[in-house]
Amino acid sequence: MRIVFLGPPGAGKGTQAQNISKEKKVPHISSGNLLREAVEIGTDTGIKARYYIEKGLLVPDQIVVDIIKDRILKNDCTNGFILDGFPRTLSQAKVLDEMLKELGNKLDLVFHFAVSKESIVLRLSGRRICGSCGSNYHVTYVPSTRDGFCDKCGGFLNQRADDKPETVLERLRVYREQTEDLIAYYRKNGILKEIQSDARIEVITKNILDTIDTLSEKKYLALE
Ligand code: AP5
Fold this sequence. Notes:
Rossmann fold; single chain; binds BIS(adenosine)-5'-pentaphosphate; globular; alpha/beta
């Protein structure tokens, strides 16, 4: 299954990608995580990307496309992947289609996470990330057992630098201007599924899994 999670900042893409990746045993590829790793290590890519991420702007297409291409060509992606946060522009979407075509594949599903602005603000202001293993928490909705520390590895929990209110507003503006057009693009391709993302985490996970399983059954029956 080759799947894209599309939606505004804080819609819950990363949370759901972690859950679905575990259930379906396909890698979760987050363009944001890959870029933040590059920033942390201080690679040339990371140094260039940092400027844009801190301002809440999109990193130039070529930088992101190169990172994603390298990742998708790794062996663990042979049976599929979940792309979280990529593509984010029409040009990235077209490059992805071309790349998959060259590999003899195509996208199976694009989930569009629809969520209210109120939820976005509450979710991003309370999000905490483990500085060691990257696990995702929320002070109210997904609290860690020991305040400020990761349940999985004991690392410190931090707030993401781009979750400051003024940067969140900029990220939302950028989403509306540069990414929202992808909803129509994938709807036209017939692979868009709407996900009501104001619901509880477990409810959303079940809806996504049900949609994936229905599609897998249809594909199986078509082969018989
Ligand atoms: P990226 O890291 O992709 O950020 P984003 O798309 O803005 O999404 P977020 O990670 O903020 O939110 P999410 O939807 O994953 O929500 P989450 O599950 O964490 O990108 C960051 C930056 O990198 C960009 O601004 C850009 O500069 C650059 N970049 C990345 N990709 C790029 C690309 N393709 N092109 C160019 N530039 C790119 O949930 C949020 C919180 O809510 C968590 O605390 C979670 O616990 C909680 N939560 C989740 N679901 C629920 C629920 N159902 N109920 C209650 N709480 C919930």
